[in-house]
User: Fold this.
Amino acid sequence: MSARGLFSYRSYWAERFGVAPFLPTTRAEVDELGWDSCDVVLVTGDAYIDHPSFGMALIGRLLEAHGFRVGILDQPDWRSPDPFRALGRPNLMWGVTGGNMDSMVNRYTSDRRIRRDDAYSPDGAAGLRPDRAVLVYAQRCREAFADVPLVIGGIEASLRRIAHYDYWSDKVRRSVLVDAGADLLVYGNAERAIVEIAHRLAAGTPIDQIRDVRGTAFVGYRAGFHETDSTAVDRPGRVDPMPDPYAMEEARSAAPCSTGGGEPAAERLVALRPRRVDRALQVVRMPSFEQVSSDPVLYAHASRILHLESNPGNARALVQRHERGPGRAPGAEARDVWIQPPPIPLTTAEMDALYELPFARVPHPRHQATKIPAYEMIKFSVTILRGCFGGCSFCSITEHEGRVIQNRSEASILSEIERIRDLTPGFTGVISDLGGPTANMYRMACTSREIEAACRRPSCVYPGICDNLGTDHAPLVALYRKARAIRGVKRVFVASGVRYDLAVRSPEWIRELAQHHTGGYLKIAPEHTEDGPLAHMMKPGIGAYDRFKELFDRYSREAGKEQYLIPYFIAAHPGTTDEDMLSLALWLKRNGFRPDQVQAFLPSPMASATAMYHTGMNPLRSLVARQPVHVVKGLAHRRLHKAFLRYHDPQNWPMLREALRRMGRADLIGSGKHQLVPSWQPAGTATGANDRRDRRSRLQPGVALTQHTGLPPMPHRKPRR
Assistant:
């Protein structure tokens, strides 16, 4: 895999203005910098914090390094287009994101309750961003300056790049690219794509001619590609009625499992005429939006294809037909969403240069009188890697960042720690985290570049650790030792998630972690104890957790420290039965765990587990056999699964007693050590409190979210739940 160097472009002429102390957020700040206009205006749902952990700051500083004048509209009032005109007309493009966190996940819990705060807002204030922020911001940008190219990105857009199940409206929605009416969508960590787009726009290339950039999606079609039907890539199983490959074109297009729609038969049904075609010139046609909306089999099939075509070394372009979007002229071109292959991962040198850009590492001055919870959490942390090859079915990291680990050099990381020590206000000598998506994947990679480029496995560690995966923790141990030896550094913690099945291969790393980088408690996520749910999560068995705990406890004792693991579990994940949750609850009680905060599965867009939730099928395996997946959907049932995790809460005892009797396990009701809940109820415990709270704060079926967004219902947007 090769790509043009991230910093190899000739700088744009505006480089002469130099580096801004902060990227401007008002017209007055633009004037102070001596600019007459901005080349790029970035719109984000987060408060602007000039720190590399925040996407808009990272992209903004990168574009600045290429000579572009970049302004930021952070949390603009979306009720009018006027705030979107505050910085004037962008010369080159808009860049729109919902923020570091999906705006719907940010505002609603897994039970669809409204959250009381927003960690990315000043003082944690809620309500400063709209629901479906990418759509709302895109609409306002068009209203402000309709002729300016519009590029959307960030995790909210990234995970909605194809037709996807939306948990909050309980339906399949179109690609956000279509609904937003954007010119381009950039997905994943979009540095390569956004830099190339900006330079090509600056060179005078029209936005509708930028169609060959990896990591982007657009509405249209590229000529010169050989189209492969997705059913030739992976069989979805029998769908009635099957299209007859020898039937007339009209009949074949009308069949439910046909994934075509107007292309020549020879192009769509290539399995009938196999021939050798350059993979780089192939495009896989996925089932259309209309098909995946109406057929669960084809939805699960589309999810499976998306994940099969996710390795930058061998992924092909994907195309999916949609109904005509807003503002588009009639015609076939306006109905195809074309998704380019994923971006080539950044090299270590590129990662170093990116994270060494001149970030102020503090919030914008207008936010410095407030506290932004997300910043308070990460201001003394250092990112050492990107990506995750775990492939957990419920997690969006792999879909967003990819499974190829991108590492920073040891020297760059140590240099950033020194900058934190010298420049960050309030530093007391404690680095809060050296990590990333997973703490202990630093410098891990496939031992063969050829195998890595050809691999189509969704995970390198499930069902077991791949023999081709290098799992050496020695570079990470060396980094830890050098980090804590830096003058002025008292402690270096590891707060990112730990992949314990990898960790047990390196007892020396566990020793280092337990004796030097844990502050009494270490959060860890086995997610469940039972094989059924773990198989659907693509997580290791609980035995790996037990081995890790044994080593962690041993090395803690050797250091004379009393330290504990705090395990995290997921309730109501697809593939989880009531019996599974009961077994987990009994395990928690035997081991003395009384979880305070518990999480229920939240079906985020594009995740494999979300496809299970929506379809009742498992896209991790061939769909020909149609193996059903047990799915917990009703609110009462989901609450029961959460109640098993909080078996010690008297509020949950009536529900658990009822469930145990129904399951034939009334023997677990009582005050014995082996029993789960007592037969008595404490005075003053209200059994209906949760129900009343839900009625007040949950989204109700058929209720639109326009009260929060401030937008009138749009013709292309149906009422949401």
The radius of gyration is 26 Å. The chain is about 30% helix and 10% strand. Confidence is low (pLDDT under 50) at residues 239-274, 325-334, 688-721.
